[in-house]
Design a protein that fits this description.
The complex is a heterodimer of chains A (538) and B (433). Chain A is mainly alpha-helical. Chain A folds into three domains: 118 residues, no CATH class; 99 residues; 262 residues, ABC transporter involved in vitamin B12 uptake, BtuC (Orthogonal Bundle). In chain A, 69% of the residues lie in helices and 4% in strands. Chain A contains 20 helices and six strands. In chain A, strands 3-2-1-4 form a four-stranded antiparallel β-sheet. In chain A, strands 5-6 form a two-stranded antiparallel sheet. In chain A, α9 packs parallel to α11. In chain B, β1, α2 and β2 form a beta-alpha-beta unit. A seven-stranded mixed β-sheet of chain B has the order 7-6-8-9-10-14-15, with helices on both faces. In chain B, strands 2-1-3-4-5 form a five-stranded parallel β-sheet, sandwiched between helices. Chain B is globular and about 65 Å long. Chain B has 433 residues and is an alpha/beta fold. In chain B, α3 runs parallel beside α4. The chains are: A mainly alpha (538), B alpha/beta (433). The interface between A and B is large, with 60 and 51 residues.
Chain lengths: 538, 433
């Protein structure tokens, strides 16, 4: 008996010892060796770009919950490793905060001690597909929709099978319809006879993949089926053409809004005051540089910096405009040729000044997030957000300017002076002061245009040159001295340009527009909306 | 009597002065720097002027050349093509420069070419160009089309399996010639004509909406599509911005550019461009001892840690080092012996290899394809195994495939010739028409 008891105690003790010894061992394994997923992920560090694809494919076979975040970090270029020990790190793209991928704890590590795990196009394409496949069962309907969209045209048997299982339980209508397309695709590839319904369904889709699939099918299928496919294709093409026209109009409006913005300041200085200001483009450039400078001051707040640049650019360009008027132009009123030469000289001085102060290199102005990306109407029509914002901005500037010209004392005085200077002076208007303020206003508006252009094009010393001819064109076409004329002519020229471009090419389109304006001015020298009345000088 | 006295005295004084001037001129070797510091091209060319100043300073710190100090003579042709010719004449005739480093655009090179040939000057041209030229007085240290465009297309075709091609360029000589070569090359490779879309835009084009939308449509035909871009200068920024805004990512339609380098990227928000490609013979991100030293020197010289280096800068460094070696070998800065000594000279390039000057006045260069990263640098994704010899006359253009250039005369029937037709056996001067 005692012997048995002894044995039992000994066995118990032994067990206890093993358990005690084993516990820390298991814990240690958790942190390292027994985590095959982490071990495998770490092999990404030393692998070549080609090998990384293989590793990613192997990783994707695992059902580890950390898989999707890992692939995402890799795709977005947030995944780094420590040069010292090869541990994986995650670097937040915006804040540059570093965390350990394994423990999620913040890590203090210098920029030179970490290195990014780089990807190339093939790898990123693979990552997108893998992530999409894993997200078919995501809780968010938009994510599911995008996942199906990503896989469309690249689906394999496995994916099609998964989608077949999921489609019944899918409660989002659009996602379900897109899933149906995937299943229809499979039938097109595998079955000889398909019913008309399927073509009806597909003919309502606009995704380019559907078009490609049907085109390929029409070439290989039996004549009867092929004609069905061709009918569906025709329906799709008609709708694509329709949306293509809408897109062209949008492009035209957006080009027009840029033209109007660039020209509207000139409409005031040239149109109302009659000053040929060749430095107008450089005032636009100053506005763009103001945007850049303000963005340098507040780099973390891009959107606010942009909004703040609007009044700042107005003040800077307006101030320079007043200086030009006071120092040069006021001595040259009534001598257009001298004004032209003098302001051309000023434009060169301003360009070279910017080159000296800011360097001849372009400056990069960051776009705020609400101005990037697209507003997707459907698969063939997507309106870019920055263009939408700029069209709206252009209309707002125009409305404000019209209000100033029509409803304020300054506007009244400006109109009076421009219509009949001696009479206005006789009525007690200080025409010199009005000249200065008008020129300042026109220049300030040019500065505002610069803020908008900084979002579209280069901010560099040559920015202004590209817009000066277009601006004069718009103002002359619209009718000198008329803000509405500028608006209408800007949008007209923009839309005309965009309709010409597809069949003539952009070089010829520009030439055609210029020829058209020359002919038009021959017929109607005063533009679209000429000023009328006795005040107009012959 | 008195008059002759004064006359002879002033003559003596004058000749003394002249002599003194000659002695002064003997003290330094003048190097001309012919890059625009104002106007449109200042954006690219100012950097090359600074590079040359740095190289001259470094050479002087090493004790100069042939026991003399070097002196850089900087002139500003102001992006004005005829002015390039005038300034070149000024450099050679008035300043008596031993060699000139300069030009960027092909039209500026074409403008100075007659001047260098007439006055027997020496020009080092550092930018990738369309080829179809080989002058006795010019050394082309940038890439010829077979060292940039053709390998890039090969990469897209073989590695990315691209089947549809958009050739987009600015409307002037370099893109037009390059695209002509590429089109002939693609057709020869069996690409159907309807799978090639060619598009030209004016200089400084800023409204890319319809073209990008066309590219998107062209690329949605089910075949892998890529854009080969010879878009020049400032027009690139709005082009890439529009690509980003219309949601065209590099995985869908990669754009490979021949005129976009680190410097151009420093003026763009590179976030939406990640993955788009560029083909060059040098990238700042290449790891080699020479490159590390060069980058460190450059940052110290310019006093700005954020400044980048780029391919034409490397071309100037190689060209300058070659010229120094050739002058040392010839023992003089006289143009003819230096031109003869140049051929066959080898200097290390910045990517760990060697650049060799060929008898057609072009270099051997490695070809690298890089993907844009979000820090504005390139990650090399592909490179040639060895240096590719530059070919002055493209083998893919009907007019030039029989033409060779050899300034030693070996391939050209004994007489050195830059434009020798191997079929007819005639040398038609230096310019191919």
């Amino acid at each position: 008996m005692p012997a048995f008891f002894f044995h039992a105690v000994a066995a118990f003790l032994l067990l206890a010892i093993i358990t005690i010894a084993a516990t820390p061992l298991a814990a240690a394994q958790d942190a390292g060796a027994s985590d095959p997923f982490y071990e495998q992920a770490k092999t990404l560090v030393d692998a070549s770009l080609k090998d990384r694809r293989g590793i990613v494919e192997q990783l994707a076979a695992s059902d580890d919950p950390r898989l999707i975040p890992l692939l995402r970090h890799l795709l977005e270029g947030d995944l780094y490793y420590s040069k010292e020990d090869g541990e994986l790190l995650v670097v937040d793209g915006d804040t540059d905060a570093v965390t350990s991928w394994l423990t999620d704890e913040a890590v203090e590590i210098g920029k030179s001690d970490r290195k990014k795990i780089t990807t190339n196009n093939q790898l990123r394409g693979l990552l997108r597909d893998l992530i999409a496949r894993l997200q078919l069962t995501n809780d968010d309907a938009t994510v599911r929709y995008n996942a199906v969209r990503q896989l469309l045209g690249e689906e394999d048997d496995d994916t099609t099978e998964t989608i077949r299982e999921l489609i019944a339980s899918e409660d989002d209508r659009e996602t379900r319809e897109l899933m149906q397309v995937v299943l229809d695709f499979e039938r097109l590839s595998k079955e000889e006879q398909v019913e008309d319904d399927l073509f009806q369904r597909l003919s309502r889709r606009l995704e380019p993949e559907v078009k490609n699939k049907l085109t390929a099918y029409a070439e290989s299928a039996s004549p009867a089926m092929a004609s069905n496919a061709a009918d569906a294709l025709e329906k799709i093409d008609a709708r694509v053409r329709f949306y293509g026209h809408i897109e062209t109009i949008f492009f035209g409006l957006s080009l027009g809004s840029v033209l109007v913005l660039a020209a509207i300041g000139l409409a005031i200085t040239f149109g109302v005051m009659g000053v040929i200001n060749m430095a107008h483009g450089e005032l636009i450039m100053l506005g763009a540089y103001t945007t850049w400078v303000i963005q340098q001051w507040m780099p973390s707040n891009v959107g606010a910096a942009l909004l703040l640049s609007i009044p700042a650019a107005f003040l800077v360009a307006g101030f320079v405009g007043v200086l030009i008027e006071r120092l040069v132009i006021r001595y040259l009123y009534g001598r257009p040729l001298e004004t032209l030469l003098a302001t051309f000289g000023i434009s060169l001085i301003l360009q070279q000044a910017v080159r000296t102060i800011f360097s001849p290199l372009n400056r990069s102005v960051v776009s705020p997030s609400w101005m990037s990306g697209t507003l997707e109407i459907n698969s063939v029509l997507a309106l870019t957000n920055n263009r939408l914002v700029i069209i709206g901005f252009c209309l707002a500037v125009f409305a404000l300017l019209s209000l100033v010209m029509q409803r304020t004392r300054l506007g009244l005085e400006v109109r009076a002076v421009s219509q009949n200077r001696p009479m206005a002076r006789a009525m007690g208007i200080r025409s010199e002061r009005v000249d200065m303020l008008t020129f300042g206003l026109g220049s300030g508006v040019a500065g505002i245009a610069g803020v908008a252009l900084s979002q579209l094009t280069n901010v560099g010393p040559n920015l202004g040159q590209g817009y000066i001819i277009d601006s004069f064109m718009v103002v002359v076409f619209g009718g000198v001295g008329n803000l509405w004329g500028t608006l209408v002519s800007g949008f007209t020229l923009g839309i005309a340009n965009k309709f010409l471009e597809p069949w003539s090419g952009s070089v010829l389109a520009k030439i055609l527009i210029l020829v058209f304006i020359i002919l038009f001015i021959q017929k109607r020298p005063r533009g679209l909306f000429p000023q009328k009345g006795r005040a107009v000088e012959a | 009597m008195k008059l002759t006295n004064t006359l002879s005295r002033s003559l003596i004084a004058g000749s003394l002065l002249l002599g003194a001037q000659q002695v002064m001129a003997q003290d330094t070797i003048k190097v001309g720097v012919l890059h625009s510091l104002s106007g449109t091209m200042a954006i690219s060319e100012t950097t090359l002027k600074d590079t040359m100043l740095m190289l001259v300073e470094q050479q002087n710190a090493k004790g100069g050349l042939l026991g003399k100090q070097l002196e850089a003579v900087v002139v500003d042709p102001a992006s004005d093509w005829p002015l390039f010719a005038e300034k070149a004449r000024e450099l050679i005739e008035n300043e008596g420069v031993a060699a000139t480093f300069g030009c960027w655009t092909s039209v500026s090179r074409k403008s100075v070419l007659p001047v260098f040939e007439e006055l027997n000057g020496l020009l080092f041209y550092p930018v990738q160009y369309e080829g179809e030229e080989s002058s006795k007085n010019v050394f082309y240290t940038g890439a010829a089309p077979n060292q940039q465009a053709i390998p890039a297309v090969d990469y897209l075709m073989n590695d990315l399996e691209v089947e549809r091609w958009v050739l987009a360029g600015t409307d002037y000589v370099y893109p037009r010639t390059t695209n002509k070569i590429l089109e002939a090359y693609l057709l020869a490779k069996g690409v159907a004509a309807e799978d090639i879309m060619i598009n030209y835009t004016p200089f400084g084009h800023s409204d890319w909406q319809s073209i990008v939308s066309d590219i998107k449509t062209f690329g949605s035909a089910g075949k892998k599509t890529a854009v080969v871009s010879t878009i020049n200068g400032d027009a690139n920024v709005p082009f890439y911005k529009e690509l980003g805004n219309q949601g065209i990512s590099a995985e869908d339609i990669p754009v490979v550019a021949f005129s976009v380098g680190e410097e151009e990227l420093s003026g763009i928000d590179t976030g939406p461009l990640v993955g788009h490609l560029a083909a060059w013979n040098y990238f700042m991100s290449v790891e080699s001892e020479e490159n590390d030293a060069f980058i460190a020197d450059w940052k110290a010289f310019i006093g700005d840690d954020a400044r980048v280096t780029n391919d034409p800068m490397e071309a100037h460094v190689i060209g300058f080092n070659m010229w120094v070696k050739a002058v040392e070998a010839a023992g003089t800065t006289d143009v003819d012996p230096v031109i003869d000594a140049m051929i066959g000279i080898e200097v290390p390039n910045m990517t760990g290899g060697t650049a060799k000057m060929l008898p057609n006045h072009h270099l051997t260069k490695p070809v690298l394809i890089g993907e844009i990263q979000d820090d504005g640098q390139f990650e090399v994704v592909w490179s040639t195994d060895a240096e590719v010899p530059g070919d002055a006359w493209s083998d893919f253009l009907p007019g030039s495939k029989d033409v060779v250039s050899d300034w030693t005369g070996e391939l050209t029937g004994g007489t050195p010739c830059g434009n020798y037709n191997t079929v007819t056996g005639t040398c038609s001067g230096q310019n191919y028409e």
